[in-house]
Write a structure and sequence with these properties.
Number of strands: 10
Enzyme class: transferase
Shape: globular
Protein name: Uridine phosphorylase
CATH architecture: 3-Layer(aba) Sandwich
Number of helices: 7
Order of helices and strands: EHEEEHEEHEHEHEEHH
CATH superfamily: Nucleoside phosphorylase domain
EC number: 2.4.2.3
Catalytic activity: uridine + phosphate = alpha-D-ribose 1-phosphate + uracil
CATH class: Alpha Beta
Largest sheet: 5 strands, mixed, barrel
Oligomer: single chain
Organism: Ollibium composti
CATH topology: Rossmann fold
Bound molecules: 1-O-phosphono-alpha-D-ribofuranose, uracil
Length: about 240
C-alpha cells in the first residue's frame, strides 16, 4: 500500500500498461486480459492485473499531466516493483503525417518550450528516449500486424488550454524541430524510468490533429484504442 494505491506489494505484474483515463484502463482489462482483478480503486485511479497469453500484465490509470503521472509511476516503481512501463495514451498530431486515429510512438521527447514541462528540470536530461529494444519490437510488431504507426520526436506540455490559443501556431517551434505529436506525460515517463533503471515506451493514438483541425469523438474512443492495446500487449509479451 502507498498513499495513492491500496494494492498489496505483489499485486502488480512486471509489465504495466499506463492509461490516463480510468475508463480506458477498465476497458483494456475487461477486453484483453484473462481473469482481470481490480487492485486499486483509490481516487478512481483504477489498476488491474490479469493475464495475456499466460503472462501476467497490469494496467494502471495515471490521470492527466506530469504531476499525477509521476505519483502513480513513482509508487509503482519504488514500491510495487514493475520494471517495464508502456504508456498507452492519446496525443494531438502536429503534422498531417500523424494521421487521425493512427499511432505515434515517441522515439524522443522534448518540452514544448522553455517554460513547459517542469519535470525536465528534476531528472537527468539524457533520459528522454524510450528503451531501444521496446521501440524496435513495437515497430516490428506494428509492421507484422499492419497497424498504422509512426515513430518520431514528440513534445510534451503541462498545458492543455494555452492562453495563446489552441491553434497550431502555439507549436511552431515544435514543428520546426520536427515534432510529430504532443501529449502531456511522455517526458515524465522516460525520465522517471531512467531514474529507476526501468524500461519504458510511449505509444499514443492520435485523437485530434492540431495541424489539420480534425478531431475524434470521445464516444468512439475505446474502440479506437484496439490497435494501440494490441500492439502494447504484443510488445509486453515479447519482453
Ligand atoms: O489520454 P491520456 O492518456 O490521458 O493522454 C492525453 O490526454 C490528456 C489530455 O486530454 C493528457 O493526459 C494527454 O497526455
Ligand atoms: O495532450 C494532448 C492529448 C491529445 N490531444 C492534444 O491536443 N493534446
Amino acid at each position: 500500500m502507498t498513499p495513492h494505491n491500496e494494492a498489496e506489494r505483489d499485486d502488480y505484474a512486471g509489465t504495466v500498461l499506463l492509461a490516463g483515463d480510468p475508463q480506458r484502463a477498465r476497458w483494456i482489462a475487461e477486453t484483453f486480459l484473462e481473469a482481470p482483478r481490480c487492485v486499486n480503486r483509490r481516487r478512481e485511479a483504477l489498476g488491474f492485473t490479469g493475464t495475456f497469453r499466460g503472462s501476467s500484465i497490469s494496467v494502471q490509470t495515471t490521470g492527466i499531466g506530469a504531476s499525477s503521472f509521476l505519483i502513480y509511476t513513482h509508487e509503482l516503481l519504488d514500491h510495487f516493483g514493475p520494471r517495464t512501463l508502456i504508456r498507452i495514451g492519446t496525443c494531438g498530431g502536429l503534422t498531417g503525417a500523424a494521421a487521425l486515429r493512427s499511432l505515434v510512438i515517441s522515439s524522443e521527447v522534448r518540452g514544448e518550450d522553455a517554460v513547459s514541462g517542469q519535470v525536465f528540470g528534476l531528472y537527468d536530461a539524457r533520459d528522454c528516449r524510450p528503451d531501444p529494444d521496446l521501440l524496435r519490437r513495437a515497430l516490428e510488431k506494428a509492421g507484422e500486424l499492419g497497424i498504422a504507426c509512426r515513430a518520431g520526436l514528440t513534445v510534451c506540455s503541462d498545458v492543455f488550454y494555452h492562453p495563446r490559443g489552441s491553434g497550431i501556431s502555439r507549436f511552431a517551434a515544435a514543428q520546426a524541430a520536427g515534432a510529430i505529436a504532443v501529449d502531456m506525460e511522455t517526458s515524465a515517463l522516460y525520465r522517471i524510468a531512467g531514474h529507476f533503471g526501468a524500461r519504458a515506451l510511449s505509444i499514443c493514438t492520435v485523437v485530434d490533429n492540431i495541424a489539420t483541425g480534425e478531431e475524434t469523438d470521445y464516444a468512439e474512443r475505446q474502440a479506437l484504442f484496439t490497435d494501440m492495446t494490441r500492439l502494447a500487449l504484443e510488445v509486453a509479451c515479447a519482453s
